[in-house]
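Supplementary Data S3. Sequence and structure tokens for construct A.
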Amino acid sequence: MKLYDTKQAPNARRVRIFLAEKGLNVALMPIDLMKQEHKSQAFGQISPDHKVPVLVLNDGSAISESVAICRYFEELHPEPALFGRGALGKAMVEMWQRRLELELFFPIAETVRNSHPAFAVLETPQLADHADKMRARVMGALARFDAQMADRPFAAGDAFSIADITGLCALDFMRIARIRIPPEMVHLTRWHQSLSARPSANA
């Protein structure tokens, strides 16, 4: 199998971190977004919506969407469990994964795509007003997640999960959006530092 990957997008990084946590090695096929390699006709045969990452299996089946790829590997290699254990545990991971994705991950990505000059090739036209709106939304989400992280080591409770991977990739991508965790948000800072110290964070 092959994983079409890019170093330029946090979605692809989510999959790499997930694989690192599982101790899995998959052949990586690099795609340069800034050179528009994902827009090529050849890549369109693999990914009709021209999105990265994409996992291509040995039988030719293609799985896109980062969380869907992670779920595939979770089914094949259930340990360590990164989507939770039991009915409640799995529901909690799903809940926090979606919250972090919708309230933090996506707004940060929208801020970057609509404000950073280097991403103008990916977002035409860039909308400054939209970026400002998303940046304000991110700041509100940071405050909420800081309060919610006060009583737990990881996003969904006591165990590291896909929700933490999403959170780490979102918080790290804030640097490109020129957003920082305010110093008074000590719980969010502690969580980010803890996740950043894991070996998989270098994936």
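Construct B, processed identically:
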Amino acid sequence: MSQEEAISHLRIQEYLDDVSGLDIPHSYAQWYNVDVAALLNGSKILGHEIDHDSGASLIFLQRSAMLCCPESGRIHHYPKHLLHCFVDDNRANFQEADGILLRAELFSISPTEEQLCWECCCRSELEVPEAQSRVARWLSWLNT
């Protein structure tokens, strides 16, 4: 096994380990470990994020992103060239922002039922550095 293949296997395993730490129904966990794992076999994952509230995950690949939604059992695929990043920084006008200091969204230009809307919001100054780091990773991935 080449070093690149070994790194690829490691990133897939890191992703599956992170998913296994979610507090989700057994059927969702099984879907991740069987269906999603089989789909990822041989893929080169560059990064991933997990929504701990919904159990959904976003996987960053070389030329695309995959959104895994265990509730619906669907995996959505988005070509990178159709994705954009939007950041709304309300720290200067906090009173008008409904309690959201910073909102960032990775979104797609695609049909309505298939749109990506991966978002992070901050309601505290303490959360801003983590959100900025996430946005920096998104932009780095989008620009490679």
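The chain has one domain: 3-142. Helices lie at 3-20, 26-40, 128-142.
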